[in-house]
Amino acid sequence: MMSRNGMDLKPGINGLYAITPDCTDTADLLRRAQPVLAGGARVLQYRNKSADTALRLAQATALRELTREFAVIFIVNDDACLAAQVDADGVHLGATDGELKATRAMLGRHKIIGVSCYNRLSLAQQAVAAGVDYVAFGAFFPSTVKPDAVTADIELLRRARAEFTVPLVAIGGITVQNAVALVNAGANALAVISALFDVADSQAAAQEFLKLFIQDSAT
Predict the structure, then answer these.
(1) Domain for residue 172, yes or no?
(2) CATH number, domain containing residue 60
(3) Which one of 5, 94, 136, 168 is most buried, counting C-beta atoms within 10 A?
(4) Model's pTM, two decimal places?
């Protein structure tokens, strides 16, 4: 993307931020991701904690092509090397997934770097000072994917919105029903796994999440 003055601009993180479930069958993973993208997800993060290196490369490569078809931002979880290898739009880092300066040097200034800050505003302050492109907080609600995740309250999101200009991503047990409070508190994006991929109609589910942001922009 180019600005009017000819400078490169990064795509923004906003709206529905879909995160893939663990899946050993690449064809099935693509089959499950396609309706989520068709339903309006703005970001797709590839996350697979159980796959080996070869499978992760194959799946990330396939998802990179799929996201290009839908003009959706593609983020790789935890692995900056893999993100660079498949020319992803960026990487998402946890607390122990790499030093930000080294990650930026590897990916370049035009790629997106996001960081999990859990329930700690201090982590977000450090990450923003180091030049990340977005910060994520959570879990805001009980999560079946990470049942032992630390919990964050909505007041933290309000405080972060008042302090930071970078996009804020909310994660953790998010459904269409409980997401409204997060959007109202300042979340720019909602990171969702189960409420998208563990339902009968993933495209319809994505469309319901999309309505939250359409209504928010109209008010």
Answers:
(1) yes
(2) 3.20.20.70
(3) 136
(4) 0.93
pLDDT tens digits for 136-160? 999 999 988 888 889 999 999 999 9
**Could you check whether the bond before residue 27 is cis, i.e. omega within 30 degrees of 0?**
no
Q: Looking at the 3D structure of the chain, how many domains does it have? A: 1
Q: How far apart are CA 156 and CA 56, in angstroms?
A: 34
CB atoms within 10 A of CB 58: 14
Classify residue 212: in a domain, yes or no: no
- Is residue 131 within 8 A of residue 114, CB to CB? The reply is no
Distance CA 32, CA 14 (A): 21
Sign of CA dihedral 175, 166, 117, 89: positive
Tell me: the pLDDT tens digits for 46-88?
Answer: 999 899 999 999 999 999 999 999 999 999 999 999 999 999 9
Task: Tell me how far apart the alpha carbons of residues 93 and 169 are, in angstroms, rounded to a whole number.
Answer: 13
Domain extent at residue 56: 15-207
Asked whether residue 182 is assigned to any structural domain, the reply reads yes
